[in-house]
Design goal:
- With 230 residues, the protein is mainly alpha-helical.
- The chain folds into two domains: 6-79, Orthogonal Bundle (Tetracycline Repressor, domain 2); 85-227, Orthogonal Bundle (Tetracycline Repressor, domain 2), CATH 1.10.357.
- The protein has helices at residues 6-28, 31-38, 42-45, 52-63, 83-94, 98-104, 112-141, 145-172, 182-197, 211-227.
- α7 packs across α10 (211-227).
């Protein structure tokens, strides 16, 4: 049997760890679980990562495309306290929402339907691209207070607040139909996008839905809900 290059093996372990952390969270994940999913012995995992903390760090390095510059020194060392959360924070800072921010700065859009569709599809595309990392973050946050504080107490709060302000502004100007509660509507929109862009992949029937059809249908449904009959 040909020998697997270290870089390929490291990627295999990172991908396996992504799945296990994303299903089981940080505390319940064992190195043996990751080794089994990667098809390697438990002991050989420590050839590539020094600890479970290093394994989680590797997951984000791999998931955020930061291993493309070459093989790091192995085994990957245990990160300093706070380093993994800072890695997540730095990458998520680059995942911008320019269409939503632009809409917040424009009181009179030329085409509000196109504007709204762009905001919905922007969010959908981000979640569809990053959902394995988001699954790891959400499932591990309960065990890692700093990650919990950043993701649930900061990042998501800011996004919901921005989307709520956008909805309120468009209702005031008469572009959208009146809403019972803009904050609940913002959450509903976000969770609908999240289910189709991410959660359905964790079930058994993801293959039933065409990706392009999902994106277009979610966008059209949300646009129709806010724009029709106003």
């Amino acid at each position: 049997m040909p020998r697997v290059p270290p870089e390929d093996r490291l990627n295999d372990i990172a991908d396996a760890a992504t799945g296990v952390f994303g299903r089981q969270g940080y505390r319940r994940t064992r190195m043996a679980d990751v080794a089994s999913e990667a098809g390697v012995s438990s002991g050989s995992v420590f050839t590539y990562v020094e600890s479970k903390e290093a394994l989680l760090h590797l997951v984000f390095l791999r998931g955020f495309g930061l291993l493309s510059e070459g093989l790091p020194a192995l085994p990957l060392a245990t990160p300093a306290p706070g380093a993994t959360v800072e890695l997540v924070r730095q990458h998520m800072r680059r995942v911008s929402v320019p269409k939503l921010r632009a809409a917040l700065d424009d009181d009179r859009p030329a085409d509000v339907r196109a504007e709204l569709r762009g905001i919905v599809e922007e969010r959908h595309d981000m979640i569809a691209a990053l959902w394995p990392m988001l699954a790891v973050i959400e499932r591990c946050a309960i065990d890692l207070p700093d990650l919990e504080a950043y993701y649930f107490g900061d990042l998501r709060v800011r996004y919901f607040a921005q989307l709520t302000r956008y909805l309120e502004a468009r209702v005031r100007r008469g572009y959208f139909r009146s809403l019972y509660d803009a904050a609940v509507t913002a959450r509903f929109i976000t969770e609908a996008i999240t289910w189709f862009a991410w959660k359905r992949h964790e079930g058994r029937d993801a293959h039933l839905y065409d990706e392009d059809a999902v994106r277009a249908t979610v966008s059209e449904f949300i646009c129709a809900s806010l724009l029709e009959g106003r």
